[in-house]
Amino acid sequence: MTAGTSRPVRLGLRANAAQFTLLVAVNALVGGMVGQQQTVLPLLAESEFGLTGYTFIFTYVAAFGITKAIANWFAGTFSDRYGRKPVLLAGWLFAVPVPLMLIAAPNWGWVVAANVLLGINQGLTWSTTVVMKIDLVGPRQRGLAMGLNEAAGYGAVAVTSLLAGYLAEQFALRPAPFLLGIAYTALALLLSGAFVKETRGHAHLEAGQHTPRADGRHDHLHAGLTDRQIWAQTSLKEPALSSASQAGLVNNLNFGLSWGLFPLLFATADLPVGQIGLLFALYPGVWGAGQLITGALSDRVGRKHLITAGMTAQAAALALIAASDGFAGWATGTVLLGAGTAMVYPTLLAVIGDVAHPAWRGRAVGVYRVWRDLGYAVGAVLGGIVADLLGLHAAVWAAAAISAGSALVVAGRMYETHRPRKVSA
């Protein structure tokens, strides 16, 4: 139910099933906008634009990550101030030129510019669908809500990456793969404009029912924090929020590195484009499907240990990929990497929802996602520099070491933010 109707606002997945399902579909389209280009652009860089330096090729990932990170902050701030739906619609308007620019691009600068717009689109739309789903379900089912949201988004990344690779193999690298983006944008604008309803009233309802923790841990995180205080708590001061922010950054460091580097690494074995697309799709595919389990699992067993295990699994997966030089090892590694990411991704968002007060939840999600999505740029730049200096395998080894360090930080600093209890729909 939504504010402004004759029916009362209620919290819970069952009470808001229709809107929740619609938002899952919208977020799948958000993910699909990324998937249309992930397999294709690194290959396009070499074959059509003659780019060979890994750092230069990865500029489009860095541009995407930095822009998305900044857009996340504005998404959180504006959604708390003006409402969720206007931010969602604005984000989709930024997507309109993206596939057209990728189709027409006469040089690599156009690709980078398209990814700046894509970063704005992703930051505004994905952040807003996260906040809207947390609004709808209330405190009991945050993990499940985030699992469904992220499963839809990254499942669509996987499916679209696979489909784009197939279209590129059958028809050429342009324009066929990017026609998917045109269709996704048109459908998303229709759904978001005509059928999605505002959810800020649900957050106001939860804020009115909010009760502090019995142990007093969150007493300093009251409703009246300023934007600067919210930034400081989420980034550095509050142990759970700041631990989640660093783990999110490292998680997306791995994704940003894989986005720019994995297709080039897999191509060293002279694999066809279709197999490269399959290998790349395994990672977000397992990641997406796994979140259907791990998000709900975190509601039952808690958040901290699932995050620690997930970051450890990512470190092991990257080590396996770095040590391999053929399809079998890379396939095993990407599956494990997807499983580790599935443990972490929805659970970190649930931590933010557990700790942040409903009055500034949107801004806390925005700050977390700033740090998390800066990982795209850090991974792209770090991966490019190490690959240029020491080779592709060395870049993956570096990411494995960083992931292991992140797991240690979570294990040592984060506290359990969710007391497991019986979950009802």
From TrEMBL:
Main localization of the protein described in the UniProt heading: membrane
Keyword Secreted: no
Pfam family, one: MFS_1
CDD domains according to UniProt: MFS_MdtG_SLC18_like
Membrane-spanning segments: 12-34, 54-75, 87-105, 111-132, 144-166, 178-196, 249-267, 273-294, 306-324, 330-353, 374-390, 396-415
Domain Major facilitator superfamily (MFS) profile: 20-418
UniProt-listed PROSITE patterns: MFS (PS50850), SUGAR_TRANSPORT_1 (PS00216)
UniProt-recorded name of the protein: MFS transporter
Domain of life from the UniProt record: Bacteria
Cell membrane as UniProt keyword: yes
UniProt keyword terms in alphabetical order: Cell membrane, Membrane, Transmembrane, Transmembrane helix, Transport
Membrane disposition: Multi-pass membrane protein
Localisation: Cell membrane
UniProt source species: Blastococcus jejuensis
InterPro entries membership: MFS (IPR011701), MFS_dom (IPR020846), MFS_trans_sf (IPR036259), MFS_Transporters (IPR050171), Sugar_transporter_CS (IPR005829)
